[in-house]
Amino acid sequence: MKKTREIRTWLIFAAAWLVLAGVAAAQGFADLEKRVFEKTLPNGLKVILLPRTNAPVISMVTYADVGAVDENQNATGLAHIFEHMAFKGTTTVGTKNFAEEVAAMKKEDETFLAWRSEWLRRPRPDEARLKQLEAAMKQAQAEAQKLVVSNEIGEILEREGAQDLNAFTSPDQTVYLYSLSSNKLELWATLEADRFTNPVLREFYKEKDVIMEERRMGMSQPIRRLIEDFVAVAFKASMYRSFVIGHMSDLQGITRAQAREWFSRYYGAKNLTAVVVGDVDPARAMPILERTMGKIPSGEKPGPVITQEPEQRSEKRVLMEDPSQPMLLIAYHKPGINDPDHAVYEAVSDILAGGRSSRLYKALVKEKKLAVAVQAITQLGQKYPGLFLFLAVPNKGKTNAECEAAIYEEIEKLKTEPVAPEELEGLKARAKSEFLSTIGSNMGLAMQLAESQNLRGDWRETFRWLAQIDKVTPEDIQRIAKKTFVKMNRTVGAIETASEQPKAQTAQK
Description:
single chain, 509 residues, alpha+beta, Cytochrome Bc1 Complex, Chain A, domain 1, six-stranded mixed β-sheet, 11 strands
């Protein structure tokens, strides 16, 4: 009885703490939200500023509302290619003599187009002609390279103390970010305005070679090969089926002119959002941003992707035999981030595979020892309907089939048995902790504001997230589990270990 009273006392204390923490968080969010300054410049650029004066530092995000989902067949990889190009400089940064460089790049393009024309005569191009043009291309690149100041943008920023200088491309977005001391706001704004007004796609073919090597290295990993084949089967129509890095043949054939067209279409000011969080005074910052980033050409806001993924009518399976350890993927189609049940899907993910206390980890890893790892991913596609993905790595001597059956067993429990109150409170506490940790840093908060503005249509959604999680009920979880985790909505992919054949035997075939 004493032990029971202690447990009850602890639960009451924990519940009270969660209530107080929720109230404090709500008050903190309300204060943060009131301090956000937003303005759309005359050119259409959205600016979001959030003062946080605890240190003389600012974190900046330039968010382009474009990703791999916006690409088309024959040109996959363009979003990622341009992310690389955005660091190559402008008409004044990164060049020794721009007029001469223009002529050198023109020679590069002419030589590449000649090679491309011969290459497209597949399956029977003139191999001798290709080799000749490849040699000419290397020579043209070498001549153009003489006029380049490589990585000048990066060197300028590093010299000025930039931290966490980075960029990334996802299926839904392309983001450029770094932090500087707060007295360097004008430097950031000037450089961003220049590279999105006067970009020069120098070292284009050299960078394509880097990206193609990156793809080759990635495809040396069995899990990468499985995922690429898996998403191509799981998605029938959506461009989420294409890897962000692009198909090798597209990377080989993409021209500098195509990359310029991509920039013209997707990098107008109306498709960009600039976010600054930290020691920034909106009254002083806005004249600087209007004078610099206000000059980025407006362009037009591209419309959303029209193609919709049709309803899946039957289970799909992908089996890859490979001399590696077995792995298992199970995916179900789910709505995008703006669905009213988005928070419920996140709650389901946490309950099933949110760390060591999750159901799948306890069942597959701790108790049955079927797997060495198990996790869930709900963000394989956000702007549009995507996938709810489970990944399991079987333990030594165990199989994908055993892991698959155990995952389905836990899913069925979620459908038939309401989540206990303490389990629901636990997931909400973890969601709060994770969210507070994310927005604890200036960069984390800047990213959240940018993503909310672009993926959810309003930066204010950042401060509404915990309230949405708080509203999730056991009935919501059961409803979504029954609706989503059904056989006809499922795609299963697996690596089954295959022994490598002896080289002599392979050679005989």
